[in-house]
Amino acid sequence: MALTLLIISAIDNIRNLPQTALFGSTLIFFFVLSALMFLIPVALVSAQLSSLSHEHGGIYHWVDRGLGPKVGLLAVWLQWINTLIWFPSILSFIAATAAFFFNPELANNKTYLISVILIVFWGLTFINLAGIHRSAKFASLGAFFGALVPIIFIIALAIAWLLLGHPVQIHLHLNNLLPSFHRSESWSSLGALTAIMTSFLGVELATVHISEVKNPRKTFPKALFFSVLIILASMTLGSLAIALVIPLDKINLVAGVMQTFSFFFTAYHLTFLIPVVMLMILVGSGGSMISWIISPAKGLLQAAESGYLPSFFTVRNRHGVAARLLIAQAVVVSLACSAWGLMPSVNGAYWLLTALSTQLYILMYVLMFIAALRLKIKNTACMDGFKIPGGMFGTLLVCAIGLFGCVVTLLVGFLPPANIDVGGKIHYFITFSSGMLLLIVPVVFFYAYKAWKRVE
């Protein structure tokens, strides 16, 4: 149960709902498609890879064994750097939610958002310096009270709205459930895949703690199975809850959750519950960030200990945490906040950060699927560990489906939604492409550093 909650806390965050709600009734189609092409393949492959060893887990270990240490470094770098780009977006959600306590208009104020981002992230970094056991407890509590409970609540409010016969913004007729591509502008609906894939990233994160879990070869597959079911159901229904009552062109990506709760509570004369829900969401968002701050850094530490980073970053504190690496991480996140000045709107900046983070993570999954295939061919799976049904053919099929989903997502990442102000398609394309290149290039310097150390 604790491991399931840790996985859910890293993925099933209510802050993802507004961006997926943008796609109205077609979001059901995209959620099911994404689950089949991505979430389920990632969960199956992660479960199989986690059974390789009871001592080491995580993307660096898997890709290192399958494709070599250099590719392993690239994979863990993509996992790490994407989270640093993602942090400002979830922190802006925390800031916008907190703004409802005193002035909801601040949700569109970039100075306010950046200030809160820096304060909260540095605070959570210091919590993580106390070690994984303390942070995991905080993450589990946050997942239940701050993520699952509010999502269940918003779904219940939407169901009551439908049962009472109130007007809705979307209609779930059969002809509305599938996206239409008859008009050229309708292809922008494919951008939904980027938003939904963002909601599914991180299933494999908890495997870096494999050495701290009892009977991991049975525990991890079970935890992943329950996590997938809960995440898919809650994210689909939660997104529909927002789309039902908020006009699609009025959904605020940063403050959309509180926007919806405020709408429901005002209609039901329950406005006294707004501060309660707000506090729960803030706790849940903080809990989800705990997993994302420490887990990717722990994976990068494995690469650092292999000689790709200076030994300065491998020093651990008395709690076994790579403190210097976490501090460096906080510095990079602080610099990433400059993205808010590259887009003409808060929604535009939020989407840019989300798309960049998603594409970098998807590239990592491409390497993970290829490594899983290579390891299966080498027959390195444990006899008593979890195996994808169907043997070699089953693994090949699951990885092929996962790779196809990744490639489609990578392509549509260059298509911003039509109803978000990103300063024009050309501006977005140049900014997005430049960001991708800038964030991947540092790996080359790490290769050069290790080669230089070897010669020295």
Short description:
With 456 residues, this protein is mainly alpha-helical. The protein is 70% helix and 0% strand. The chain has a single domain (2-455), classed as Amino acid/polyamine transporter I (Up-down Bundle).
**CATH architecture identity:** Up-down Bundle
Poorly predicted sequence stretches spanning 5 or more consecutive residues: none
Number of separate strands: 0
Name of the CATH class:
Mainly Alpha
> Please, how many domains?
1
Radius of gyration: 21 Å
Q: Give the mean pLDDT.
A: 79
- Oligomer state of the chains in this structure: single chain
How large is the share of residues in beta strands?
Answer: under 5%
What is the approximate shape? globular
SS field, number of helical segments = 17
Structural class: mainly alpha
CATH topology heading: Amino acid/polyamine transporter I
Order of helices and strands: HHHHHHHHHHHHHHHHH
* Helical residues, percent: 55-70%
Give a topology summary.
Elements: H1 2-11, H2 17-21, H3 27-50, H4 59-67, H5 69-99, H6 110-128, H7 132-163, H8 174-177, H9 192-200, H10 216-245, H11 256-267, H12 274-308, H13 323-336, H14 346-377, H15 391-412, H16 425-440, H17 442-455
Helix pairs in contact: 1-7, 1-10, 1-12, 3-9, 3-10, 3-14, 3-15, 4-5, 4-14, 5-6, 5-12, 5-13, 5-14, 6-12, 6-13, 7-10, 7-12, 9-14, 14-15, 14-16
